[in-house]
């Protein structure tokens, strides 16, 4: 509320607008009785504490999966080329004149939708005209590994996210899809590609001056191939952790709505 009011009071030319000091010095704020203040603090704290608890569940799941992966597979010495156990698919390319702000069937995802720690977070969708025919093979589907293949930043090159269910989204032009075949489990492959050793490979083998690119090197990356029984055991563990994380994220969304409702109740 205060921010909105401050923005309406801003003065100055575009690009150099500022809130006058008088806005704050003359601003009046409600001061409820101390008992009500304590109640407000208590209600917000209860929600904030639970949000921290749900964040901790997500972090613990990530830590547990990483530790389990290292425990089970750190001693594996047999390796093969990535291209022998997975199909590597480059994202769609198109003329920017076909971009539109109106939602269409052609929804494209960029690197903004992958966090640096390997989580899929839907943040930015680019729509292009339905007149453009996109290759259905480049649509993200269940068990795909969504990967940043090109970037101007080395810290983003090679970042990956696991796709838990079929989607209506296509991988963008700087992106790619690693689609495992029957020789390796998708969860095992994702954790290999999200490991520190893989990130070092991506940083050291990306080519290009301004825009770094993995297209010429990623298929030659050597990856370990654990016995299939161990792969299945790890996949079951990883899937259970994914389930716990999804429940925590769902609860976080509910808590964020509850917190917004408290802001509306007490400060609007």
Shape: globular
Order of helices and strands: HHHEEEEEEEEEEHHEEH
Largest pleated sheet: 4 strands, antiparallel
Q: Order of strands across the widest beta sheet?
A: 2-10-6-8
Residues in helices, as a percent range? 40-55%
Helix/strand-derived category reads: alpha+beta
Stretches with pLDDT under 50, minimum 5 residues: none
| Mean of all residue-level pLDDT scores | 92
* Strand proportion: 15-25%
Radius of gyration: 24 Å
**Alpha plus pi helix count:** 6
Q: Give the N-to-C terminal Cα separation.
A: 6 Å
Structure, briefly:
By secondary structure, this protein is of the alpha+beta class.
Describe, in plain words, how this protein is organized in 3D.
With 268 residues, this protein is α+β, with helices and mostly antiparallel strands. The chain has helices spanning 2-8, 21-25, 34-73, 186-193, 196-205, 228-267, and strands at residues 79-81, 86-90, 99-100, 106-109, 125-128, 145-148, 150-151, 160-162, 169-171, 175-180, 212-213, 222-224. It is globular. The mean pLDDT is 92.
